[in-house]
């Protein structure tokens, strides 16, 4: 039975439709109203949610393994490295709550679990990237893929925990084999443990409903699409996801904060000009992807710096991919879960395939153009490790602790491992996909297959 009460802040009626929800966000004044033994309590106001172009919405119904659920609420959280993600709350008819995280076009459904021995959970400050979390019972424990700090930005609907506006907490995201995903929430002690896996909308019974909604682009209106530095026009091709964009007229790097464009610096071009224009569309994985960003990156060996180019591709229903060009050679790159990769003694394996080490170096961002889903900056540096098994290249990038320190006093630096799998593409195939003419490679790429073998 629904519980009704008056909002302590504005007096409007608030309704707790789910018997186990803890707070509800007032639709009229955006106060977070908590249910207590003595009635209701005002926890403070949250900002309006920023429309993120998500196919999900509060009230949407679905099912997992024939158990129906309803999305009762959503929170938006800020990432310490920039950007934000949506966290949806699913009330299942069997009494469980599910946490459905949405980030970069991917979805992760988890459930809170109780572990046999909480004392085995490592304190946040002692966690290491790649470390197995042995406290979670499993033959192959998930590993730490990311650790950082989140801040509560906005919320709507009913939520199954005591949400506090603007509260920050530390967390670690976990990755395991076969799509396993988990989170350690250090907002409590010992931390709360959530385990599940990456899912698709079809698995949630949502894609078939046709409920994907057309939304206005992330509060960015046409009148604001002018560079604050030169007043020249610019176009956002992924307005719901972009955190940084460059002006094509004056080369300024701009920060996007909920629709407001802020000048950061003017970039000097480094490397070679892009061969594929922003906005170009080509088909990969049976889906159309649009080129929304371009960057020049480099590594240094024995005093010599070597450059390559990366094109950021975007499809709103699939997420982000990369097209990488080095010395005229091209590879199509997609992200893979860190828990799916094993690495030892300069060797790695993924999907039953073994890879040999190629290089281990500090990779630096030298130039950017277009849109990016994180707060990219020139000089940003990560540790990059590449393994090869032609026509594939398996790559690991470790962020945090590289390049100039950017965190303020008291802030926690985000640390993250990202793995990706690149597939070699013959230059003629890239030319056909984008209808362009490209320079021919003059050497052999590390993941280039032998001429007498099919790729």
SSE layout and pairings?
Elements: E1 3-6, E2 13-16, E3 23-25, E4 31-36, E5 39-45, E6 61-64, E7 67-79, E8 84-92, E9 97-103, E10 106-113, E11 143-159, E12 168-175, E13 180-185, E14 192-199, E15 244-246, E16 252-257, E17 260-266, E18 281-284, E19 287-301, E20 304-315, E21 319-326, E22 329-336, E23 341-344, E24 347-350, E25 353-372, E26 381-389, E27 392-399, E28 415-425, H1 427-434
Antiparallel strand pairs: 1-2, 3-4, 3-11, 4-5, 6-7, 7-8, 7-11, 8-9, 9-10, 10-14, 11-12, 11-28, 12-13, 13-14, 15-16, 15-25, 16-17, 18-19, 19-20, 19-25, 20-21, 21-22, 22-28, 23-24, 24-25, 25-26, 26-27, 27-28
- C-alpha termini separation: 60 Å
Radius of gyration: 23 Å
Strand content: over 45%
Return residue spans where pLDDT drops below 50 for at least 5 consecutive residues.
208-224, 402-410
Largest sheet properties? 26 strands, antiparallel
- What best-fitting shape do the alpha-carbon axes yield? globular
Number of strands: 28
The secondary-structure element order is EEEEEEEEEEEEEEEEEEEEEEEEEEEEH
- Helix amount, in percent? under 10%
**Mean model confidence by pLDDT:** 87
Structural class: mainly beta
**Total number of helical segments?**
1
